[in-house]
Amino acid sequence: MTSTQAPAPGKNTVIRRPGDRIFSGLSLSAGVLILVILAGVAIFLTVQGIPGITAHPDEVKSGKSFLPYVWPLVFGTLVAATIAMLIAVPVAIGVALFISHYAPRKLGQGLGYLIDLLAAVPSVVYGLWGIGFLAPRMVPFYAWLDEHLGFLPFFGPASATGRTILTASIVLAVMILPIMTAICREIFLQTPRLHEEAALALGATRWEMARLAIFPYARSGIVSAAMLGLGRALGETLAVAMVLSVGVGTVTANLIGSDNPSTIAANIALGFAEATGKSVNALIASGLVLFVITFLVNFAARSIVDRRKEFSGAN
Amino acid sequence: MAKSIDVSDLNIYYGDFLAVEDVTIPIAAKSVTAFIGPSGCGKSTFLRSLNRMHEVIRGARVEGKVLIDGQDLYGADMDPVNVRRMIGMVFQRPNPFPTMSIYDNVLAGQKLNSKRMKKTEADDIVERSLRSAGLWAEVKERLDRPGSGLSGGQQQRLCIARAISVEPEILLMDEPCSALDPISTSVIEDLIHELKSQYTIVIVTHNMQQAARVSDETAFFNLSGVGKPGRLIEHGRTETIFSNPTDSATEAYIQGRFG
Fold it and tell me: What is the interface pTM, i.e. ipTM, of the complex?
């Protein structure tokens, strides 16, 4: 609420202490460094990507101009990330709340430790798990979906291998769960006792206490956690590339079909090694598109949080 | 509305630690009772045991009886959630929900009772509660602003409005003025006088003058030593306790000749 402002320069000479100077220098340079890195990536993507965007269909391997080429990939990326978020966000919040407020202290600590460990599992392992374990076990479930909910466009003809965009999304959800849970847990634990007691003293049950005191307090932290998870879901390469059957990807509403959409990151990973000439530029351009999408999503999320800033409890 | 409290032989434990020992005190309906005593003597713990808020701390339990108009507060069929809906509480530091507007803060308890209310009904409750808390005139133009934007004294009155909006039987106040300036304090003391006609009020205070000004009855708590449980030393009419206490420790504490 109150920002401490340095006294205006004037007759009073401001004493500059070395500690303050060093620290402000350090934090300033750290801030600038982030911007420089970000700008560097953006410039690289733009410069290298433009020839790919303007390339003639004959010059690239796909044989398509850029928009028809990248659109299915954008579609696949958004579908996979959205489904992953739909699964992971409620689970992450639930697990974090259980650890922070429901579980006995010992159990909560143990669970928290386990979840932190999950975050350290490399994505190739998740990919292997997706192909080797999850996909085959999803096959009967997909067949069931096809049979009973087949009238919905999402559950068209089912894949026989289980290697579908829905499987990839579930793997993504599992991958982003630990980081989101860990952040949510830390924020839930920091809910001021004062607010929790205010809710309890009004006769709130534990769930109502969570709704009255914990979630509003943790709102912006939950959004941050979700954004980190989403960033990983949008950009995750290996696991998705491994789970999905190879192909440039199609635009289809069918989530369980064998003719599945692909994602930008997976497409880059699969195509980069053998790409030459303008095809490389096209791949980089698709990377630029991913960069812009991530940026826009983050921007949107931040503005949602900021809209109710004065109610954030930070004052 | 406004119920009496009858406490007999109450022991309060945190785990194995006996925090408050053997309290027996009757509290009449529509009266103000002040708990005074040195820090750590168990008066806040005892206050919180009157709406089972001490159970928020793991391992807390009680032995003995607390009867609210004859109904056992710790009976097997009593749900602490319902107890707290019936017995409101105001805390030492003002704690309006920072993410809610003034309006929503007042209605927070109503919403927990999950009653569907018409807008006009809700408006009435907000106005009535804020008027009772003496805050209406100051905030009626900005009910949609965050509660955390008010001054400390206003926030505390908002918390009182929030507590009384559900029309509790009893209002517990845990040092409600200790974080406030003298002017806000006097506003809240006046408020306690007015609320007395409708509610049974129990207030913990470190301020002896405040106890003398607002309360009908005073109870003095003390510790017999470090690590020993807190005890109720004596209780009675406030005039009597302040002018002619039976126990020498009470006299010493009231006169300020005490640790």
Answer: 0.88
